[in-house]
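Annotated sample (chain length 287).
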Amino acid sequence: MVQRAITESAAAGAEPARSPEDASAAVDFLALAAAMVTGLLLALAGLVLLRRLAGALDTPLPAPVLAGAGVIVAALAAGTRLAWRRQSPGRPPVPAGRLIELVPGAALVLLGIAWSLPGTSAYGLGVLWGVIFLEEVWSFKGVLRGRSSRRSPPAEARQPSVAVDQVAPPTKELPLHGIPSGEHPADDVLQQLTRTRQADGTDRLGGWVRARFGPGQRTESVHLAFCPPFERVPRLEVSHRGGPPVRVKTGQLLAHGARLDLKLAATAERPEWVLLEFTAEEKGVRS
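Output written by the structure step:
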């Protein structure tokens, strides 16, 4: 049996977070780009339609030109809508968002009408209206998916909890596999890990982790790193071993790590530490 023990007296490193300034800049850029392209499409549609009504556009476009123009404007409309949806995933719709969803479609229809002159090639018209129809169907499905995602929680939140979901006082009687009961780590140890491989090939990582709650804080997340990663998503068990009553849920579980979401039974009035004991186990898959 191979065993590795790691004792850390510093908190586990959190995943690098994207700064609010970077996120805000990206959102502003996508929103501005979507608004500009929407305006250009609308202006183009208005100009072409006015020329058609004024009689300045009386010669049908060749079929390849008409088909290419249809593909280009449909791609611009789709890109505009996609940029807007990516800059505001899962957010409630706003008036500007509704306009960016509706205006490109209206512009495509107006351009299609303006370019559908008598005597125009049936092939060109078929491609033109075909790509417009496909783009609008895609857009409509995207709107339905967006509404569905706003009504339902994110996939990560729907992930079933494979740890504990409880509010309970600390327990010291129930040992986890490979970790003797009652052998709590020293008070200055924030994380302690033991990696073992059993005779049957089971790969097991067990240990302790402490989470700190400041005054006025009720929720916290703890990140566990599985290094080296398991070959498959392991089975995770977590027990509350010390500190105030807390609810523990597995927010995310992957082969290379996990996130535990903690919520105190009551908001902390002073600095509090919660001690958790955990085991991640993968049945024998390694030779």
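Annotation: The helical segments are 20-54, 63-87, 95-115, 122-151, 155-158.
Annotation: Strands lie at 3-8, 191-197, 203-213, 219-225, 235-242, 246-254, 257-264, 272-282.
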